[in-house]
Queue: 2 jobs
Job 1
Amino acid sequence: MSQAVVLSSQSGAVLTLTLNRPAALNSFTGDMHTALMAALNQAATEVSVRCVVVTGAGRAFCAGQDLTDPAAAPKASGEPTDLRDLIDRHYTPLLARMRSLPVPLIAAVNGVAAGAGANFALACDMVVAADNASFIQAFSKIGLIPDTGGTWLLPRLVGGARAMGLAMTGDKLSAADAQRIGLIWQCVPTESLTTEVKTLADKLAAMPTAALVATRKALHAAASLSFDDALAAEAELQSALGFAHDYQEGVAAFQAKSAPVFTDR
Ligand code: T3D
């Protein structure tokens, strides 16, 4: 029996999705996109899930698009390949799903993250990487531009000069350097990746989910807003949160010096 290309396991309120094509460094195929999208859609509707972790099986996180996939690989006949269909069918919906996920999303980068695999990780809310992991904007080496959100994400995370350098050279960036320049949240010893990510995921899962998701929304929106418009967007989101259960709960627990139990999603 063939193994699932995306493994799913839930512990408490944390769902872990593992890309599972280790022999091809978990590179994306149509099947893997379909399975990942189904798993994320399921997580979005399952109220017991309050945080999602994505990681890779074996020694890599994800090597981007599977370059042997007939849908992506240049044809032997020399006939041009239209990548637009692949992007429209899989990558754009994947990024939209991640950005609208109603719970926090963590990338646990266990090894190399290249091409679309790197930007898939960087599009998560928080990125924790093992110190043997690396990030490669591999696109330029095969005649492409950073996609999967790379052109938006890179300059916002690390500034224009570093974004341009990473994108043009396609050089490997160690996880330690990725943390140093602000590309990722944290680089941790390889042997502690699982426990560090579990601690973070459990922590986020116990926090007010709706407020965390509104935080994501506000930070992303602010990137293209004027200061005044960002203030207006904050006011709108804050107003909605003020009417919600979790705010009542958080303030009541603070006043009672007790632990809050957040339930909004
Ligand atoms: O199609 C579109 O819509 C356009 C979108 C494109 C998005 C993209 O992601 S473009 C970028 C695609 N990815 C790459 O260009 C990365 C290619 N891979 C590499 O550069 C290297 O494999 C790594 C730097 C990631 C790792 O190097 P290393 O030396 O640790 O491993 P390796 O020996 O190169 O790879 C191990 C196996 O994985 C190998 O297979 P084999 O020889 O053992 O049978 C290799 O062919 C396979 N593999 C690695 N990356 C891919 C892959 N197979 C298919 N597609 C890959 N992307």
Job 2
Amino acid sequence: MKEFDVVVIGGGPAGYVAAIRSAQLGMSTALVDEYIGKKGKHVLGGTCLNAGCIPSKALLDSSEHYHRVLHKFDSHGIKAKEVSLDVPTMIARKDKIVSTLTQGVAGLFKKNKITWLKGHGRLELGMKVSVKPTSGEGEKEVVQAKHIIIATGSVPRTIPSLTIDQDHIVDSTGALDFTEVPKRLGVIGAGVIGLELGSVWSRLGADVVVLEAMDDFLTMTDEQIAKEALKEFKRQGLDIHLGARVKSAAVGKDGVDLEYEDADGVHDLKVDKVVVAVGRKPHTDGLNATEVDLFIDESGYIHVDEFCCTNIPDIYAIGDVVQGPMLAHKGSEEGVMVAERIAGKKTRVNHETIPWVIYTWPEIAWVGKTEKALKKEAREFRSGTFPLRASGRALAMEETVGMVKVIAAADTDEILGVHIFGASASELIAEAVVAMEYNASAEDLACIVHAHPTMSEAVHEAALDVHKRALHI
Ligand code: FAD
Ligand code: AMP
């Protein structure tokens, strides 16, 4: 039986990063993964590279280009005639980016001498992992591990009365592979994934109706920003219904009949396709958790402590399969931490400074606490805001929708949260993460020189506004 210092189960951004870091630290490492890519072959990268972060961003970028040519070039004095759309080319570009990156990870595995075991990984008693070929054919292999890292990720949640057929009723994976633009698209769930995928197909010309069960919009986001974002997304044409819970869907000859309920009663909605984007759940199927006594909590997450240790010594769990935001970079950092702790280092992850991004246009990004959360904690704070309509660079780019908000402790001035709605918010948030990681105060941020003209000046001005000394508003 082969023996490894570290065996990782799951090759997404949590697992493959854990494997690379383990190998860098000199540990013999194997990774088991069962993901089959679009071409029917085993691929690394998990949900993020194959059906998540990367393909969705590729389509968000392509669709934004198309939308710009049609609706935003005119004011720049650029006249574009006979603009047309080639969806298969757009999808093929996305697929190429995915395969470049998944092959890149395979290359990194070779370079770091990581053994890639292709198939379904199962925990066995005595720190063993069995690997069953995904096709069901071939020999089952069993390997011995000194340490096991579980990184089995998450899968889409479903609605019991809706059957995903990946044709008329699709999940997020299906919505990344439409071959033409649906005329009428229903999106169930106005969370991050629903808004991103709804935006893609809306920009490409679909009439998109988003049905969201909750009465409030983007509840984890700063309330002021969520309000502005809802107004802007509706202005862009996303027909967002809040307090609308989808009950059932029936596929007919001419599309899908959706039934949903809101405060006014039960309604029918006819659409061509439906994207079910009602969240994701931790994936522990077939892990053999019960037999090995691995503790899974009542929400389905593998229970871990702050260092990602499970209840079994030398077995760790990271990424979407454990509590915390289902974000790729959160899982990767947990992967680095676990590998380094196995190697005897004292690494930890600061879960308070994990940035969140919603890649709509404009983007929404934040780090730290919202005003609502601070009020709940009865913590006193001051906040400063700066609207992008007052930013020279935003005006030059014609991207004046949005704002930056900096929230700081009333007593110490330490930055407690930064919330951005605007062009490039995903990049701008990095400055706030660095500032918070170093326990910077709003004044520290206000004292730093920001290049002119840049969008980052809005972060500077919002920090100045915490002490009511913004210069350009
Ligand atoms: P996963 O990426 O889910 O990988 C788990 C891997 O383990 C898979 O390959 C799976 O096949 C394999 N596996 C599971 N069980 C077994 C087993 N028993 N044996 C062998 N293999 C197994 N996050 C962001 O940070 N930014 C974004 O922009 C973003 N966009 C997204 C867009 C969409 C449409 C979706 C669906 C998700 C998006 N996410 C984004 C979330 C992100 O994809 C996840 O947070 C991330 O992939 C989690 O990484 P992970 O390694 O924990 O799990
Ligand atoms: P997220 O978890 O951020 O991806 O968001 C998923 C969203 O789907 C949440 O805001 C849920 O309220 C919403 N949701 C869940 N079930 C339904 C349903 N049956 N109809 C409409 N929205 C739903």
